[in-house]
Design brief:
precorrin-2 dehydrogenase, 4 helices, Rossmann fold, alpha/beta, 2 domains, globular, 7 strands, five-stranded parallel beta sheet
């Protein structure tokens, strides 16, 4: 399938329910980014990283250590399917499409309603970068360059305001 452009949209997730199926490194990275925008995150996985376990114990995320069930997505606005089981990810994708829930399947860019961007935040500034699911390393390099440039510009602005 030819790569199609995705519209970059910034949305308020603060009151949206997000479900992450999976508890590995990819899920952990995405959850850490999402926590900058919302605390309404439910994680469902049979195994999780220690970092996710700690976030669950702290009450930062709602954590269920068990297999995923269809009912887990009942009130979801957005779902991240980041399990290491492609059949389960495919089933999650199917359920989300049936229910009209935005879904991102970490292992299949063709099954994504949205791409998960590299994010840089400072003050009121939020920048998201994606390579349309094709080259994560390139997107990371671009995000880092943008971050360096913005920190320079915003740092100079802070110095001007102090004078």
């Amino acid at each position: 399938m030819k790569n199609k452009p995705y519209f970059p949209m910034f949305i308020d997730l603060s009151d949206k329910n997000i479900v992450v199926a999976g508890g590995g490194n990819i899920a952990t990275r995405r959850i850490k980014t999402l926590l900058k925008f919302t605390r309404n995150i439910t994680v469902v996985a049979t195994k999780v990283t220690q970092e996710l376990m700690d976030l669950g114990k702290a009450g930062t995320v709602t954590l269920y250590i068990r297999p995923v069930k269809r009912s887990d997505f009942a009130n979801a606005y957005m779902v991240i399917a980041a399990t290491n089981d492609w059949k389960l990810n495919d089933e999650i994708h199917r359920v989300c499409k049936e229910e009209g829930i935005y879904v991102n399947v970490a292992s299949d860019r063709e099954a994504c309603d949205f791409y998960f961007p590299g994010v840089y935040m400072r003050d009121e500034m939020v920048v998201g970068v994606t390579a349309s699911g094709l080259d994560h390393k390139k997107a990371k390099r671009v995000r880092e360059e943008i971050q360096n440039a913005l920190e320079k510009v915003l740092g100079e602005q802070d110095e001007d305001e102090e004078r």
